[in-house]
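Supplementary notes for students who missed Thursday's class. We covered one full example, reproduced here. Read the sequence, then the structure, then the short commentary at the end.
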Amino acid sequence: MKSYQEILDYLYSQLPMFQRSGAAAYKNTLGNTLVLDEVWGHPHRSFKTIHVAGTNGKGSTSHMLASVLQEAGYKVGLYTSPHLVDFRERIRVDGNMISEEAVVAFVSDFEAKNRTLGLEPSFFEITVAMAFWYFQLTKVDVAVVEVGLGGRLDSTNIITPELALITNISLDHTALLGGTIQQIAAEKAGVIKPDIPVVVSESSSEYDSVFVEKAKSVGAAISFADQEYEAAYGFLLANGRQTFNFSKNGKLIYQNLQSDLLGSYQRKNVAGVLKVIDLLVEKGWNISLQAIYGGMSKVRENTGLRGRWEIVGANPMVVCDTGHNEAGIRQVVEQIKQTAWRELYVVIGMVNDKSLDGVLELLPKEAHYIFTQASIPRALDAGELCRKAKQKGLNGQVIADVKMAVAEALKLANPNDFVFVGGSTFVVADYFS
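Structure (token representation):
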């Protein structure tokens, strides 16, 4: 039998992988996923699921839900993508990553079966099949399943969940999902299924009607969380968490609801989570107030989530965030503005299939930039990023290696300064690796 490293080499080098190669790895059909699901006996039917889609915030939201459900006493599977450092981050049960032995066993079994099947699956199709197989093997009660890309044709969309949650919609992956907000919303709306409730975290006049019409057409009840739940702002506490006071329809419901996921933008994700919990409780799920407070305050501890406004250094403060499109960067910039600093250093890299102009126009011109690139084929050349940034009035230097770029920022910065690392999930991944 192959070693774990040999299996990883196969997954990374032999299968088309969107995170590395981009659109060439995208499959616009569920064909392979349906075959794999049938071959393994439809494992996803053996446990309940919650489906999470959206442009930004779906990773944080998925981890929050998993943490609360764990605190409520359920055995919880969690499928997310991409990973930061370890492939096994994608598949967790009660916060514990899938074992190396299980990865080897599944892929070896697939290779044996595929001698007859003759499939040419993508990396994502295989990992989704592996996740569902592992969740059945470990007898989870419920799995929180994050959509990889889009929704309608995403490999995760073979499930019939307890409910679906859509975080928000913004322009991202436009070459694959469509060039308008409405087109992208229509792809995300593909997770809305007959008679299955759907929650939308953030309402918008740009796309609400798309979701309302799809829900109505299939008889699905739809809720907009931010029309019920609201927390105007959050406070950072001495214990490293932030706290919110959440009102529902104008009445204070959750006072001092603490979260170990920082960034004021998380309040939008929390609203969606709270509405989902309401609906689960209505369905008879046993989720106490204690589980909600405990789960929200221990998301990182319970699930291993990293890279969401994560403070990784002090004096100077160093923060990593995986926000990588215009909407995500807008939230990051707002958070930077709310942070005290004397001088700002930004270590930034992006991928080559993103729209740059909108992102670059959002970034603060007073910062000193170190332009870098992640160690993946999709990474935008750091020199090209620098040239485009200068056209927008952003100045700095080029250091292509992420860790060397961060080291240079730390050398330049004084104790009262602020160093931000981001622009791409893969820049953050290189920093952590």
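Commentary. DSSP finds 17 helices and 18 strands in the chain. Residues 310-432 form a domain with the Protein-Tyrosine Phosphatase; Chain A fold (CATH 3.90.190.20). If anything here is unclear, bring it to office hours.
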